Amino acid sequence: MSPIPNFEDISQSVFLIPYSSLDDGPEEENETDLREARDVLENDLEHGDILRWEAYQSAWAKCLDKLQTIIQKLHEPVVEAIAEEIKNAYTETFPGLPYPELPTITISNPAGGTSFLNELTNQLDRSNDEADPSSFVTHLHPAECSNIMAGMKMLITGFIDRPPDKAKTQFKRKPATSLANYDINLLNAWFAAVRNDREQRNAKVPSLVAVLHDFEQFNPSVMQDIIDICSLHIPQLPLVFVMALSSAQSPSYLHVTYPRSTLAVLRIRQFHVPFGLHALEEMLRQTFFTTTFDPDVMLGPAALGFIVDYYSRYNSSLDSLLNMFQLVYLKHFMINPLSPLVKTTPAADILSAVASYSFVDTLFGRLCTTKTSDAWREKPLPTLIIAVDEAREVFNACIRKSRLGFELMIVVNTSLASLGYKSVEPDAHHSTALLRIAIDLVKGRATKHIEMLSSLIRKLKFSEVSSFLDTLRTYYRDAPAHIRDQEGKHKEHIDHFIAGLPQEGDDQYSEKMRQLAIDIGDWLLNYLDELVQPLEELPLWEVWSTGQTPFPMELMNPSIRASTVSGLLRSHEFSDSAKKPEETNLWDLPDTGILFQRYLDSGKMINVYDWFDSFQSVLETQRRETSGPRKGSPRKRGKKSVGGGNEGKWKLQVQARFIRALHELDYLGFVKHTGRKADHVIRTVFDVCDT
Amino acid sequence: MHHGSDSSDSEDDAPCSSGAEDDVEAIPLAPKSRKRKAQDDEGRGQPIIVQTSFDAYFTHTSSRPQTSANVFSSLIPPLSSTEYTEAIATLPDQQLKSILLTDPEARNALFTRILRELKEGFNVLCYGYGSKRNLLNQFAVERCSKVGHVVVANGFQPNFSIKDLLNFIEAIPGVLSLPASSAAIESQARRIATFFSQPSQKQPLYIIIHNIDSPSLRTTKSKACLVLLASNPRIHIVASVDHINAPLIWSSSEASSRGDGGFTWLWHDMTTLAPYDFELTYADRSSISGAHGGGPRKQRDAGSLGIPNATNMSETAAAHVLASVTQKAKKLFVLMAQKQLDAVEEAGGPPANDMQPFAMGYGMLFNAARDEFIATNDTALRSLLGEFRDHNLILGEQSTSGTEMLWIPLRKERLANVLRSIQVE
User: Which residues form the Origin recognition complex subunit 2 winged-helix domain (chain B) (predicted)?
Assistant: First the structure.
């Protein structure tokens, strides 16, 4: 262990505790980590925390991998289009322009996050073969471009840091004999060397790509100048600006903020990254509600509802979505002692350990209730393991069926929506049909959707029946092999319906058609009912589903104000004191709490003297109450001895306590000083705190 | 629940709504509490119309604020730092402590959780009322130091800068072996990030920042450096915030982005109820705005940090200086003090802390000193003044007209006390 620094040293503002291992080699980091972080739950297995952690890591890695693939697929078309645009920036120019235009690409990405730009950079790198990159990329951030000199310097040094030709080493630049590194002629000279080298080898001359991150944060006047300077040096310098915007595509930030003179020198191409509910739908549908992927843990209704709500209301960024999924997983494995069972059942020797007793006991309690066969009495542990494995199989089979049911419902829904049926369109809550059905499905309330779909199908127009059946047939034809095999019976049903389509010239055409539509509706109703089963009724279901566990919202979107205010006013609830809230008096609170209560009682502006006066009177009460014969906590005894004699001392103490409490409130940001009236402060918080 | 006891308390003691000069309230307290009482009597908590903070704001803003004409600093002499320290020292320790401080089990569970989240690539922010310094230091020593390097930064100190933090991280063996493009903080931060992303670097770095909401860490530059560190998967940040508006420092994309350019904050309630004494060590306890952070005022004061309490010398300090100077120098002080007191008396008005407006010109002082036979030439007077200036008992500044203006930084009543004690001698 390294020595602990003296944290109380006021003269030092930073302390370093270097890591020093005593005996362990470098490999032991993980082990130490886990040993330090023991986290044992009630009814836990022996080494349950380690098992849970491992289960979490594999489950989340699998899920994250899938999610990232989906995101990448969403971005792919846009990324490719942009890469193509950059490649052709200087080859496809408009003829007959009075002056060359600076190619500019704006990427509007309201979903935020850097994954898109990373993919773009990777794509640009990928298209570059090692020897002759077709573009040089540099990145500019708002913090680095506070003025034009710094901005130009970052832009130029970002390019010239690499050697201009095939020489692997950068030649040394002598500051005394070369141009300043914010002079664009330096870039010109460097690029001339690049061009020479390439032309000698008959290779393509690369373009210079500058990616401007968080473009809204750049100072427009600085950027105007930089753009002007750059536009004077094209096309000798094949510069391309890529601006990452987080605002919506229309109205374009660029057009709103920059003057016409700047826009005139730019050739702007706009792109936008898919975002919004569509992105959420895709991610949910392809991860948790598909027949082609099995996540280890299914989202429960509480978590899913929260995620949809948070994403659509507060922060529709894909990164925050990933964070939420990860937190759901993390919480599931951290609080649920049964979660190690997600993928595997522990071996009998772990289950028979003493520490695992209550875990095993819980499992017995859960699984043994119905089947009290001999096997349970004779060989309890092996039977238990078999039962757990069985439960896992049952759950997986059931959830796969549900997912198939969901996919089918979405197919039917989409096809009905395309036929113009209103009741399946997005509702007033801006939640799409897919999200609504998904949430109801995990809640076990999908029946109403099934009934609705079935009744719509029964009333289909005659002309629509045939195309609807075609949609279903297509779905089965394109479904994965295991679904086709499993559901062959139902495919035959559809084929049967199609074969039964009456001919138009038939004299009983309308009766037959109506009957057919009713038959299809009934078949769908029964079929979906059979597929979609409530998960909560399965044995040990909460191992594989997060169920009703609420999402840990306070981790992402905390109410700091409310927490601080209740810390001040209801301090006793944070401590282990036995006092009930009804029993606490104002004078029981810490000083800052008392002063804050008085703050809440007052108007917009507070006279400090009057505030002091009211504070003093509470302290007087406190002194009177605590010096009485009936009570005597250590704190209060302290008061008594102070209050015993010297009145002057007491006055000083009250003043010191007032100043201390006032300074604390100031530190927390509750007070704003006003220059208008002598010794007055203004309130900053108007919360009604006692509801 | 709680308001029931509060309102009854304020009715019993009536500390706020009684008293002649007490009209602090724009809204009288009594009707409000009666209404609350009525609600309580009904037994069912939910009234039909619930007042929100918006309502409260508009109610308060619509009426003219009526406050009394009392001026705190004129009615109550400010505490000197000695008086303050003495008074606080006699107070017993606060007994009310949150569960996190008293229950090791709850604390350990929280620490484990935080450590897990850090490992999963999140960074952690702690909020809630009470100083979180000791708790986080404990976390650093007990947990982080066993798995990696730890740097603890006291962001709340006025002399703290991000450069200090980076310099300390560079003290970790090996960091300096990498080349840095320049001495600027960005390249320093970049070098640190590169160092910790090397696969050969086994130990992660834990950065504990007390009060990441402090003015010096709020700047764009500091944020850019921190985000560079935070987005590195092997550098973990645990920070505390106390200001109620602290979440506004980060945009939602900065707060939630994974990878480059994002902190990926997770928030933890870490209410400790502990007093902020250490954080407020540098606060000027003699002024009601002494702890006000940020703002232009603080910036200005930060410059004069070398002279502690320059505008507020204590009586004892003055007595010490005066005890060790010559009779002549003492006479000069008495002369100056008398003139300054007269000037304050003449100006009338509320007593101010700042004595600079009552300064006297050097020429005038010289004339007066010559008349009293204290100093007969310029050199003598300057040498007498030198002693006082060294101890900040007399301050001087060039006025716009070019003459030097001199004054004693002692409030009226204190100066009078000092004068009296000299005259008694």
Answer: 355-413
